[in-house]
Amino acid sequence: MMSNILVLPIVIPAIFAIILIFIGKKPIIKRMVAFFGAILTALSAGYNLFYIMQHGIQFLELGSWPVPYSITLTVDHLAAAFVFTTSLLMIFIILYSYQSITVERERYYYYASVLFMLCGLNGAFSTGDIFNLFVFFEVFLMSSYVLMIIGGTKIQLQESIKYILVNVISSSFFVMAVAMLYSVTGSLNMADISVKLSQLNNHSIITIVAILFIFVFATKAGMFPLYFWMPGAYYAPPIPILTMFGALLTKVGVYALMRTYSLFFRTETVETILLVLAMLTIISGVIGALAYRDMKKIIIYNIMIAVGVIIAGVSVLTVDGMLGAIYYVFHDILIKAALFMLVGIIIHITGQTAYDRAGGLIKQYPLLGWTFFIAALSLAGIPPLSGFFGKYYIVKALLAEGHVISAVIILLSSLAVLYSVIKIFMHVFWGEEEIQIQPKPYKKMLIASIIVTLLAVGFGFYADALFPIFHEAALTLTEPSHYTQILEVK
Amino acid sequence: MEIIMIVLAGILVSASVYLILSRSLLRIIIGTSILTHAVNLLLLTMGGLKGGAIPIYDKTIKQYVDPIPQALILTAIVISFAITAFFLVLAFRSYKELGTDNLDEMRGVPDDE
C-alpha cells in the first residue's frame, strides 16, 4: 500500500498552474515556473513508475473510504508508464514553446493552460473511476479549447468552433454511456463494474453500452468515421500546441478504449467492430498522408495511421497484441512529438508549410536535417529504431489469430508512412535552394526536438530493458483479475 | 414513470440533433445545451425513479432516493455550464472577427502560419 504519492503527478501541475495564474506579465518568470513544475511532475511520475515496477499495481482510496464507495486512483504499469511519458514530454514541449509561442500568447495564460492540461491527462491515466475519468477528460478538454483558441487568429476561431462542437457532443454521449452502465451495474468503480459485468454473462445491453463507449473514445482518438474534425482542428493552432494535441490528446482516447475494452466489453462483436474500424482508420490515414503537400497535414494524417495500428493490436486481446499496442503507443507519443517539433522548426525557418516551396536546407541546417531523417526512419519502423517492436508484435498477434488481411494492411501502411515522411525530407533538405532565408533564433526549439528524437531512438535501443514493465501491463490488460484484485484488499 | 422520462429524453435528443445540424451557430449552441439537458435527465432516470425521501439523513425515514446520480448530474451541469459559457463567448468573438454566424461560410480561411 502506497501512501499519497500516487496523487502527486495530478496535484503538482494543478498547483503550479494556479501559481502561474497569479504571476503577472513577466514571461521569463512564467517560463521558469512552468518548466520547474513540469520537471517536478516528471520526477514524481518517475518515482511512481519505479515503485510500481517493484511492488506491483498500486491504488489509493481518496478520503480513505473503502474501494467501491470512494474514488480510487488505480495505477498499474500501463497507467504509470503513460503518466511518466506524458510528464517527460511536457518538459520538452514547454522548452520548445520558449521560442515558438509569441509573447502575447504567453501573457494570456498559455503555461497555466498547459499545466492544467498535464493535470487532466495524468488524472485520466491514473483514475480508477469511470465518472472521474469523464471529469478529467473535461479538465484537459477545457484546457485544450483554451489552447486551441489562444491568440485568436481567424483560422483558430473557425476551427475551434468545430472542435468544441464535436467534443461537447461526444462528452454528452460519454455521460449517457456512464448513465447506462450505472443502471446496468449500479457502480462507478471500474474494477467493480468489471466484476459485475462478468457475472452478467454477455447480456446484449453490454454490447450497446460498449458501442456507445467506442463512439465516445473513437471521437477523441480520431478513428475512422469520426476523424473528420481532426485535420482541420489540428491544423489551426501553433506548433507546440499541435505537438501536445497530436502526441497526447488522441492517445488518451486510445488509452481509455484499451482500458474499457479490456475491463468491460470483452465480446466477439466488439472485437470485430474495433478491428474493422482500425483497418478503415489506417486506410483513410494513408490516403490523407499521401494526398497532401502540406507538412503539417501529412503528419496529422500519420497520427490516424498510428491510432489505427494501435487499435488493431488492442482488438485481438492477446498478450502479444496488447504488448505490441503498448510498445507502439509509447513509440508513437515520442516520435509524433519529435516530428511535429522538427516540422515546426522547418516552418519557423522557411515560413512555408508546403514542402515543395522549400529546398536545400541541408547545407545550412545539417543537424536539423539528419535528426529529421532519423525521426522519419524511426516512424516507419526500421528495425533498430523504435517503431519496429510494436508493429512486429501486432502483426504477429494478428497472424496468430488468422487476420491475414489486417496484417498485410498494417505492413503496407508502413511503406506509405515512410514514403510520406521521406518525401518531406527529400524536398525540404535536398533539392535546390529557392527562397532567401532570414536567420531566426531556433536553438532551444532544436535542442528540445533533438532530445525527444534521442528519447525515441533510445526507446528503440533499450526496448529490451522496458520489456518487463510492458509485459506486466499487457498481462493486466488481458487478464482483468489483475486489475480487479484491489476489490479484495479492503 | 421511467418510460415517460425516457421518451422525454428521446424527444430532447432529437430536437438537439435537429438544431445542431442547422447552419446558424446560435441554434447549434442551443442544441448542445438541450443535449446536455437530455443527458442529465437520462442520468437521473437511469438511477431509478422509485419513491423515497430526499437524501438528507433523518432517523425516522426508511427509504431514500439514490443520491449518486444527483451528485453526478450536479458535476455534469457545472461542466456543461462552463463549456456553454466558453462556447457562447467564442461565438461572439468569431462573429466579430469572421463577420458571419453561418457555419457554411466558416471555411477556407487561408493559413496564416
From TrEMBL, chain A:
<feature type="transmembrane region" description="Helical">
    <location>
        <begin position="108"/>
        <end position="125"/>
    </location>
</feature>
<dbReference type="Pfam" id="PF00361">
    <property type="entry name" value="Proton_antipo_M"/>
</dbReference>
<keyword id="KW-0812">Transmembrane</keyword>
<dbReference type="InterPro" id="IPR001750">
    <property type="entry name" value="ND/Mrp_TM"/>
</dbReference>
<keyword id="KW-0406">Ion transport</keyword>
<dbReference type="InterPro" id="IPR003918">
    <property type="entry name" value="NADH_UbQ_OxRdtase"/>
</dbReference>
<feature type="transmembrane region" description="Helical">
    <location>
        <begin position="77"/>
        <end position="96"/>
    </location>
</feature>
<dbReference type="GO" id="GO:0005886">
    <property type="term" value="C:plasma membrane"/>
</dbReference>
<feature type="transmembrane region" description="Helical">
    <location>
        <begin position="325"/>
        <end position="347"/>
    </location>
</feature>
<dbReference type="GO" id="GO:0015297">
    <property type="term" value="F:antiporter activity"/>
</dbReference>
<feature type="domain" description="NADH:quinone oxidoreductase/Mrp antiporter transmembrane">
    <location>
        <begin position="129"/>
        <end position="413"/>
    </location>
</feature>
<dbReference type="InterPro" id="IPR050586">
    <property type="entry name" value="CPA3_Na-H_Antiporter_D"/>
</dbReference>
<keyword id="KW-1133">Transmembrane helix</keyword>
<keyword id="KW-0813">Transport</keyword>
<protein>
    <submittedName>
        <fullName>Na+/H+ antiporter subunit D</fullName>
    </submittedName>
</protein>
<feature type="transmembrane region" description="Helical">
    <location>
        <begin position="446"/>
        <end position="470"/>
    </location>
</feature>
<feature type="transmembrane region" description="Helical">
    <location>
        <begin position="205"/>
        <end position="229"/>
    </location>
</feature>
<dbReference type="GO" id="GO:0042773">
    <property type="term" value="P:ATP synthesis coupled electron transport"/>
</dbReference>
<feature type="transmembrane region" description="Helical">
    <location>
        <begin position="273"/>
        <end position="292"/>
    </location>
</feature>
<feature type="transmembrane region" description="Helical">
    <location>
        <begin position="241"/>
        <end position="261"/>
    </location>
</feature>
<feature type="transmembrane region" description="Helical">
    <location>
        <begin position="367"/>
        <end position="385"/>
    </location>
</feature>
<feature type="transmembrane region" description="Helical">
    <location>
        <begin position="163"/>
        <end position="185"/>
    </location>
</feature>
UniProtKB/TrEMBL annotation, chain B:
<dbReference type="GO" id="GO:0005886">
    <property type="term" value="C:plasma membrane"/>
</dbReference>
<feature type="transmembrane region" description="Helical">
    <location>
        <begin position="38"/>
        <end position="57"/>
    </location>
</feature>
<dbReference type="InterPro" id="IPR039428">
    <property type="entry name" value="NUOK/Mnh_C1-like"/>
</dbReference>
<keyword id="KW-1003">Cell membrane</keyword>
<dbReference type="InterPro" id="IPR050601">
    <property type="entry name" value="CPA3_antiporter_subunitC"/>
</dbReference>
<keyword id="KW-0812">Transmembrane</keyword>
<feature type="transmembrane region" description="Helical">
    <location>
        <begin position="69"/>
        <end position="92"/>
    </location>
</feature>
<dbReference type="Pfam" id="PF00420">
    <property type="entry name" value="Oxidored_q2"/>
</dbReference>
<keyword id="KW-0472">Membrane</keyword>
<comment type="similarity">
    <text>Belongs to the CPA3 antiporters (TC 2.A.63) subunit C family.</text>
</comment>
<protein>
    <submittedName>
        <fullName>Na(+)/H(+) antiporter subunit C</fullName>
    </submittedName>
</protein>
<feature type="transmembrane region" description="Helical">
    <location>
        <begin position="6"/>
        <end position="26"/>
    </location>
</feature>
<keyword id="KW-1133">Transmembrane helix</keyword>
